Amino acid sequence: MGLKEKLHNIKGKGKDKKWLSAFSAFHTFVYTPNETTHSGSHIRGADDLKRLMTNVLIPLIPILIFAMFNVGFQQNIAINGYQEGMTFFSGEFWNFDNFLIGAIKLVPLLAVSYIVGLGIEVLFATINNHEVEEGYFVSGMLVPLIIPIDTPLWMLAVAVAFGVVIGKEVFGGTGMNILNPALTIRAFLFFAYPTWMSGDKVWVTGAVERTKEITAGANLDAISGETILGSLAQGKEFAYSTWDMFFGFIPGSIGETSTFLILLGGLYLIFTKVGSWRIMLSAVIGALVMGLIFNGVVDAGLITESNKFYTLMNTVYWHHLLLGGLAFAIVFMATDPVTASQTNKGKWIYGFLIGFISIMIRVFNPAYPEGAMLAILLMNVFAPTIDHYIVRANVNKRQKRLKTKTL
Amino acid sequence: MSQDIRIKRGLDIKLKGGAALVTESAKSSNIYTIVPQDFHSIVPKLSIKVGEKIKAGDSVFYNKANETMKFPSPVSGEVVDIIRGEKRKILAVKISADIEQQFTDFGIKDPKAMQADEIKAHLLATGCWPFIKQRPYDVIANPANVPKAIFISAYASAPLAANYDYVLAGKENELQAAITVLSKLTSGVVHVSIGSESKSPLNGLNNCMIHKVSGPHPSGNVGTQIAKIDPVNKGEIVWTINPQDLVIIGELLLTGKFNSERIIALAGSGVNTPQYYKTKIGSSIVSLVQGNLKTGNHRIISGNVLTGTKQTLKGVLGYYDSMITVIPEGNDYELFGWTMPVFNKISTSRALTFSWLFPNKKFDLNTNTNGEHRAFVVTGNYEEVFPLDIFPMQLLKACMYKDLDEMEQLGMYEVAPEDFALTEFICVSKQPHQDIIRKGLDLMLKEIG
Fold first, then answer.
1. Mind listing the pLDDT tens digit of every residue in chain A (407 residues)?
2. Do A133 and A263 have their domain in common?
3. B81 to B87, B88, B95, B97, B360: CA distances (angstroms)
4. What strands lie across the sheet with B149-153, from one edge to the other?
């Protein structure tokens, strides 16, 4: 008897049993079910939710691997100094030592994210007697990529539990949530443990540890690493070239640094028709418009160099797309279909405002110079309102048609 | 005046087993069956008893809500069985056919001379009325109404559908007679749609407006055409009728006989030689497919693969159907089916699915759902195959939470379940769209009327 028959028999025995949800999650992972159509169309398209969700993981894998190298690389340059003129294929970056440092830090984060998140999903599915839905496939991968590398595992576990329960399950699970679960998790970390989420100690692995050792009296050099946005917010200089920023050899949240790979990922999602090109394009336009407005304010001489917002406002408008988490957020967060606007016209407005507000928050919030997370969470809340007015327009059109008829 | 219809949003599902343009007479069925469930929302009252002899066109049962509305026997013979279900609900009436068919004579009529009331009475009495359906609600038309227009789609865009140009060839006189009488029942126009390249016998008929249709499925759905030509507003009614049924009405008027003959397509990858058969309403499935089925586990569908009903060899050709499709059942597991690259199924995404590489390939799809039922997650993909100016997901959700106001505002009066067949086909969450819409329409019919 093959595996297929064995699993089929277990499924038969599991009818009305509590463990069926958990078993089905595994069973459907191995085999697409033998379910046939009962009503309506007798044939169905090839795509199911599992396929589309896992399709989002494909472009995340290169980003994850790049991040492992970058974690090691950032520690390396924090200790040994920075080398000028790197290209994308430089050996200083792509070496096994770097990878190992990153992998050792990143794999546990990934494991905690998936174990805690999926554990809660399975628990809720068992209690509510429904199938384990696939939403956390993607969230579980996104979460480790949007946090600083030294985030303690227990902290991540608490945040994931909060995000999955409060952000998703209380609304009824995948498809029903209002806020993006991955960003809810990040927002929880950000407000509960702010010292671990910003500043110049959290972006390079080992920095916090090292600082503690120094305060305890060890004779060591301090490691620090400021993100470019952090430097800009304080009006400081930084040593990275535009190409460094584009390829991603910069400090930052784990997966957000390589605009190059994120761009490729975005193109992949658009090509496979899984991510909404409307949201991505309009968000980029929104960010550029806000950037141009700030550049214009500086050019018009409305603020002086002594102003604390001057350096960030003076940043070349398109550089905003290379800095911070904006690119990652636009491609992988804003396009979450559940929490985004659901109408095609609404997606234009939703995306544009995300880009626009991200840059606004980024410039005006020097304590925490990044706005993508808050902008998307804000627009998640407003997405149903946007949709409401788009749908209203359709309803009004229908009513107008009736009126002109009866006149 | 002609108004052409071009559809951009839609999807042509190309399947193996299209019917060759050859017609044979099907083996005649011994037993003909009338299934009241084919007539949605009608409560039948029997007008015959077991053992009674009847002629073709005699009433088998009538509508409880409107006793003048008769449902006829397709053949002459003896009533051999009445099958009842729970609460004595009538499930089927079986009639054993005479070898020499006899027809009730309803009298030859002159379509041009008939008045509206006379036409209605005649169609009701002869059992031809149930061919006429109405929107809103997609049910048999209420004879008390005057529709603002009547729509006839003679362009079939559904997968493997019978070619109307072929099955209607040579029936110009019958079609004209039927259209002439129908044109007197509406305050507006009879709209007839044909394919843009079509040599349809309907082209050039009088008393109707011809529309040439092009574009992918659902361009041939009458609902799509209504939406493009003259959408249904609140309080308005339109009627629809299948072109093959026009032929039956036309023949009734010209000869006085109710002749239930119809040419149907037998198609699908489960059929050895897909082709056309001349048969009658109520024929058994066995009489149509016997000896022509491939071995293996197949599903027999009366109608097309998107909207038809599941049948077995013991089943019956549906009252409104003009085709039988046979496709493989898909009740098997597929190892890592959710992540392996897919070449042999149709997909509208490109998520390791490759049907976009082969736009002209004919697929052999089975009945597997290719995934499990989920909540609505993905947005924006229904709109790509849905040509109506309606938000499909929002309307489906309104039906699910039974908000009648919202259903009305979002365009429920304009749709029938078949309009949601394609969104159901591509639905990533495997939601039962047509079922949701049918239940929503029934709820509205009950609450609003």
1. 688 888 888 887 877 777 787 888 888 888 888 888 888 899 999 999 989 998 999 999 999 999 999 988 888 888 777 666 667 777 778 888 889 988 999 999 999 999 999 999 989 888 888 888 888 889 999 999 999 988 899 999 999 999 999 989 888 888 889 999 999 999 999 889 888 887 777 888 777 777 777 887 777 777 777 788 877 777 777 778 888 889 888 888 888 889 999 999 999 999 999 999 999 999 999 999 999 999 999 988 888 888 888 888 888 889 889 988 899 999 999 999 999 999 999 999 999 999 999 999 988 876 676 788 999 999 999 999 999 999 999 999 998 888 887 65
2. yes
3. 17, 14, 7, 13, 48
4. B5-6, B209-214, B189-195, B149-153, B238-240, B133-135, B139-140
Whether cis (ω within 30° of 0) applies to the bond prior to B136 is yes
Exposed, middle or buried: residue A253 (CB in 10 Å: 0-12, 13-18, 19+)? Answer: buried
Q: Judge if A245 and A343 occupy the same domain.
A: no
> What is the model's pTM?
0.92
Q: Which domain holds residue A120?
A: 56-273
CATH T-level assignment (fold) for domain B5-11+107-255: Rossmann fold (3.40.50)
Q: Using a CB–CB cutoff of 8 Å, tell me whether B188 touches chain A.
A: no
Per-residue tokens: B80: 């051999």
Q: Which of residues 297-326 of B touch A (CB under 8 A)?
A: 299, 301, 305-308, 310, 325
Contact B368 A44 (CB under 8 A): yes
Angle at B158 between CA B155 and CA B164, to 5 degrees: 35
Report the Cα B35 to chain-centroid distance in Å: 15
Other beta carbons within 10 Å of A351 = 28
Tally of domains within chain A: 3
| Cβ–Cβ below 8 Å for B427 and A45 | yes
Strand-strand pairing, B44-46 and B20-25: unpaired
Do A131 and A237 fall into the same domain? yes
Within this chain, do residues A184 and A203 fall inside the same structural domain, yes or no? yes
Q: What's the length of chain B?
A: 449
Is A101 in the same domain as A226? yes
- CATH 2.40.50.100 describes domain B31-97: yes
ipTM score of the complex? 0.90
Ramachandran angles phi, psi of B2, nearest 5°: -130, 140
| Among B448, B447, B388, CA closest to B423 | B388
What DSSP character marks residue B383?
A: G
Identify residue B75 by its one-letter amino acid code.
V
Q: Per the CB < 8 Å rule, is A49 touching B429?
A: yes
Q: Are residues A175 and A309 in the same domain?
A: no
**Quick one: tokens of B70?**
């008769």
In a domain, A358, yes or no: yes
Amino acid residing at B231: P
- Residue B334 in contact with partner chain A when CB distance is under 8 A: yes
AA letter at B19: A
Looking at the fold, whether A356 and A283 belong to one and the same domain comes out as yes
